């Protein structure tokens, strides 16, 4: 991406104070997303994908604290901005689609009104026109009978429909950065395809940057130009999508690819990832938080992680990365030949 | 193979809309008018069988009637019409209310979608697994404890976790509790409603392999409800594709996913994200599903969304027809049959 990044996150660290100790949820997380670009944050649950998004949006749990780093949106550092500065930006410039639409929507307000709220507050829409426009938004996200549904409450709708409402709310003010936290987890594949098409289309039309958080590597591969793989609060690998699949350098990425049901012909062939995420409350966390699960562990792994090569397009945080195959020319948008 | 579960011409309708008031009902009774409430045809005339030891996948989008079908098969709700036979016994004669205490209750068990929400939060893992054993097997004391521990270790749940409550367990461990609870009473048919939907890929693999091992060890049949086709492809022998209350295609899983003959299945298969393809190269389903409220019996349910959709589809509901190993309900299925490959 030659254009100035829409959002650039540098060295983000987040801690949570809990009764049983301090959880170092994020440690030195850096990535950036350009205008019109779609990147995916991929990792297991507990890897810090959502916390990254919450920190950027300024909606961390009160127990959480940003202990370092910057998140630059335009000229504004979101991490040090005042709450009134953030309130101006949130909803208008950055919008978020949450993981669980049922808990994210207001349960005692009709969905049409909830969309209208955003339109009035952030979308420069006159109060009188807002209801009609919110019906249009519902139609745009593919809800049948939008005029009737606008009067419905979230509990009257299916999970898929609630998610569409969430998306309508997020896109209402035409933000420049959309953070989609597992937007299609509860949806069917056909709906997922349509919703992702919708998000992708809008992103390219409006030059909207999208950060797409998912645990589904296949979906991330299909929908994003760049993938940032996270593990236990670290960014372990960051590369163009085609390059990442053809040439995964971090052992964790390679295991994630092998564990995807799409990559196997039978169930026995599927590899599972041994071990589980380390306890982030431990004082003696190794510098590489994957090292205790890693099949390629060396003695050097006890040293601090290697600093990223400046200007490198394919960043890997590992002392003993997988051998590099021939580099793949970035084929953004063009379908790759299926390897199988 | 012997047939375990035989579902024939099964329908479930739900009345919708305003229930008429007492006066309107009284008036209608005396004027002799027909009782006409609009009805949602959640499951409409569905027939299929599950053999012993077979894994059948049930796929379809939300709102297609998967859950209604599954809830009726597990006897949580009553059918409107049709029969459900478990072995020689006709289950639809017993009202769902009475079935809870029925000796055959133990033969059909269910694993719910998200064990975090379907396991009683005030029950420890032990209690959750013990509950069906107490109620259905009348086990007490030492026998109960032994059985719970056997099942837990069968499901790979460490015994020291049995005293924990659901919120103290990880997603994978909760899924194991949900499975252990269902297989504790040794069912013949296990209905799995998206058991891995809430799990990470790394855990999903382990749970799927656990399910496959349990099936081999215990000789159960599975009805596996999922919308993750890549999982269904790996686990299931046969697959049923539902659309708006009807089965539109059925057949061996590999066959259906490699050569889908119904346009809906084709769209479904094409919508599965694949790692090595980028962009939206798939078929999109445009338009909206037809209303399930009193649908016209002569119009194909997929008409309006179908990329093919011709005049014939508006006037004649396609019946399930046999093509090689598939059953397909489409007038134009012949056209989708693969052409014989030239020898090369």
Give a quick set of tags describing it.
heterodimer, A: 340 residues, alpha/beta, Rossmann fold, 7-stranded mixed β-sheet, 11 helices, globular, B: Rossmann fold, 8-stranded mixed β-sheet, 4-stranded antiparallel β-sheet, 13 helices, 33% helix
Please sum up the structure shown.
Chain A is an alpha/beta fold and about 350 residues long. Chain A is about 30% helix and about 20% strand.
Topology:
The complex is a heterodimer of chains A (340) and B (344).
Chain A: E1 5-18, E2 21-34, E3 38-42, H1 49-57, E4 64-73, E5 76-77, H2 83-89, E6 94-97, H3 101-104, H4 111-122, H5 130-140, H6 146-149, H7 159-171, E7 177-181, H8 189-206, E8 209-214, H9 217-223, E9 226-231, E10 234-240, H10 241-246, H11 251-259, E11 315-316
Parallel strand pairs in A: 3-8, 3-9, 6-7, 7-8
Antiparallel strand pairs in A: 1-2, 1-4, 4-5, 9-10, 10-11
Helix pairs in contact in A: 4-5, 4-7, 5-7
Chain B: E1 3-15, H1 22-31, E2 39-51, E3 55-59, H2 66-73, E4 81-86, E5 89-90, H3 96-99, E6 108-111, H4 115-118, H5 125-137, H6 141-154, H7 171-183, E7 189-193, H8 201-218, E8 221-225, H9 229-235, E9 238-243, E10 246-252, H10 253-258, H11 263-270, H12 311-315, E11 321-323, E12 326-328, H13 333-336
Parallel strand pairs in B: 3-8, 3-9, 6-7, 7-8
Antiparallel strand pairs in B: 1-2, 1-4, 4-5, 9-10, 10-12, 11-12
Radius of gyration of chain B: 22 Å
Could you say what the CATH architecture of the domain at 5-36 and 47-80 and 215-316 in chain A is?
3-Layer(aba) Sandwich
CATH topology of the domain at 5-36 and 47-80 and 215-316 in chain A: Rossmann fold
Q: What value does the average pLDDT of chain B take?
A: 85
Number of helices in the DSSP assignment of chain A: 11
Q: CATH superfamily name of the largest domain in chain B?
A: P-loop containing nucleotide triphosphate hydrolases
Tally of domains of chain B: 2
Percent helix of chain A: 25-40%
Assembly type: heterodimer
Note the gap between the termini of chain B.
38 Å
Shape by Cα distribution of chain B: globular
